[in-house]
Structures are given as C-alpha cells and as structure tokens.
Amino acid sequence: MKKRLLLAALFGLPIYAGPAMAADGAALFQSNCSVCHQASGQGLPGQFPPLAGRIDKIAATPDGKKYVIAVALNGLMGSITAQGNDYAGFMPSFKTLPDDQIAAILNHVAGLPAGPDATVFTPAAIAAERAEALTPTTVAEKRKALDAQHPLP
C-alpha cells in the first residue's frame, strides 16, 4: 500500500480507494453528477430533475431502492415527472464506477439537502443489482410501474 501511494504521489496518479478507504460520496457526486443535477442536488426545472429530498423517499421501499440503483447502473431514457415538473431526456450509466463509489454517491444524495450522508445503499446491494443489465428505456418502464404502485415524489 505504501509503495502504491508513493508511486501515485511521484507520478501524479490518482489514488483509487481500496477496501480500507471509504469512498467520499460528496466528492464523487460533485465530479460525476453535479454538472446536471447541480451541486445542491436541486436540478434544473425542465432539464434535470432534482434529487435532493427525493432519493431517500424513493429508496424507502425495496423496489424503490432497486430502481434507484438501476438508474445509477444503467442510466435512464424517456419522460418522467418529478415534483410536478416534466423531464424528457437521458441520464448516462455510471456502471463503470466501482460498487463502493456508486453506493457512496447514492448515500450522499439520499442525505441531501442538508443532512449527513445516509446509509441506505451498500456496495453489496449495488453488486447484486449489477447482475441485471437493463437498457435506459427499460429503467424508465420500471419507474412507471413503481410510480403506479407508490407515487414517486
């Protein structure tokens, strides 16, 4: 580990989090998500839906939690309604990120707007959902089904 840190420092390489290093959800959110959803997670009306104050509510059910993970892993394409505003667009997949980083981002978002990061998502839950490869359009269909069962905020 020391050798890896020294080499990274000498050559200006990024240091990737290992199992002993917790992923920083806030920093990962800023570098991967805030360009669209804004630093606060409030989104832009009509363009990018808000995440703050919603993800924890959606993830309150097992199906909701699976849906949130599916969006992060597979992306989302199609029309959705969030907090009374309509959005039509595309969210890219973040499946290239490791499970611990996706869990950290989702936990950070679940704690927005003002609270500490939540502990709703685990790397194991992300890994389990990774087994089901979905298209972004299929994820949108899952959202519609979930919204029919439990209206989404």
UniProtKB/TrEMBL annotation:
Q: Which organism is it from?
A: Komagataeibacter rhaeticus
Database matches in PANTHER family? ALCOHOL DEHYDROGENASE CYTOCHROME C SUBUNIT, BLL4482 PROTEIN-RELATED
**Gene3D superfamilies in the cross-refs:** Cytochrome c-like domain
- According to UniProt, the name of this protein is Cytochrome c
Q: Which GO terms describe its molecular function?
A: electron transfer activity; heme binding
What Pfam families has UniProt attached to this entry? Cytochrom_C
Which InterPro entries does this chain map to? Cyt_c-like_dom, Cyt_c-like_dom_sf, Cytochrome_c-type_DH
